[in-house]
Design a protein that fits this description.
This protein is α+β, with helices and mostly antiparallel strands.
C-alpha cells in the first residue's frame, strides 16, 4: 500500500519523525567503542598463546606474560571462556589467507550479553597480521580446546566494528589469575571514559 505524504507543514514534520523512528527500531544496536591505540594492538594481536602453566616461565618471560595478561584484562571489553568449534580458511584474489575461528562462549567473566558475548563469536585473523602464524599450522591444538578469549572492539577506517582478540589456554592457574584481575579491575573499568557509536543494522 502506498503512503501519501501529508500536505500541512506540521504534519510533514511528524511524518518524518515517525519515519526515522521506524528505521531505527528493532534493527538498531547501540555499542560503546573506545579508541584502539598502538598499546592495545600489542596485546590484542589476533593471536593465540599456548602457555598452559605460567609458573614454568622464568625471568623476563614471566614478567612479560604477567604484564600482558594484566593489560588484556584491564583493556578488554569482553573476557570469556570459549571453545573453538570451527576454523575456516578463506583466500582473496591475491591468495592471502584469512582464518575465521568460530567460538562457542561457555562462560563470560567480563562483558554483557548485549555486547555480543553471550553465545557465539567469530574471531578473524588475516595473513600478515602479527597473530597469523600462531594459528597457521596449529589448528589441531586450537580446535575443541578451552581457551580464555580477550576481546576489545575496534572500529576500522571503513567504519566496520570488529573484535580484536587474543586467546590463552583456559587452565586452572590462568583462569584463577584472570578472575582475580577481573575483580580487582572492575571499578577501574567502570570509571573509564567511553565514546558511543550507534550501529544501524538491517533486520
Amino acid at each position: 500500500m502506498k503512503r501519501r505524504l501529508p500536505n500541512h507543514p506540521s504534519s510533514i514534520v511528524l511524518f518524518l519523525l515517525w519515519a526515522l523512528a521506524a528505521c531505527g527500531g528493532a534493527g538498531t544496536e547501540a555499542r560503546t567503542i573506545e579508541p584502539f591505540t598502538g598499546d592495545h594492538a600489542e596485546v590484542f594481536e589476533d593471536g593465540v598463546d599456548f602457555v598452559a602453566d605460567p609458573d614454568a616461565l622464568e625471568g623476563r618471560w614471566r614478567e612479560d606474560w604477567s604484564r600482558d595478561l594484566d593489560r588484556r584484562v584491564t583493556w578488554s571489553d569482553g573476557v570469556m571462556i570459549l571453545t573453538i568449534g570451527t576454523i575456516r580458511t578463506d583466500s582473496d584474489l591475491d591468495r592471502e589467507r584469512t582464518f575465521r575461528l568460530i567460538a562457542r562462549v561457555d562462560r563470560v567473566i567480563i562483558g554483557e550479553d548485549d555486547e555480543g558475548f553471550s553465545d557465539e563469536i567469530e574471531l578473524i585473523v588475516r595473513e600478515g597480521a602479527p597473530g597469523f602464524d600462531t594459528v597457521d599450522g596449529n589448528e589441531r591444538q586450537i580446535l575443541d580446546q578451552p581457551f580464555i578469549g580477550f576481546v576489545r572492539w575496534h572500529q576500522t577506517d571503513a567504519g566496520e566494528i570488529v573484535p580484536r582478540w587474543h586467546l590463552s589456554p583456559a587452565t586452572t592457574p590462568i583462569v584463577s589469575r584472570v578472575e582475580y584481575l577481573a575483580e580487582s579491575r572492575r571499578d577501574v573499568r567502570r570509571e573509564r571514559g567511553r565514546t558511543t557509536t550507534v550501529i544501524h543494522e538491517a533486520e
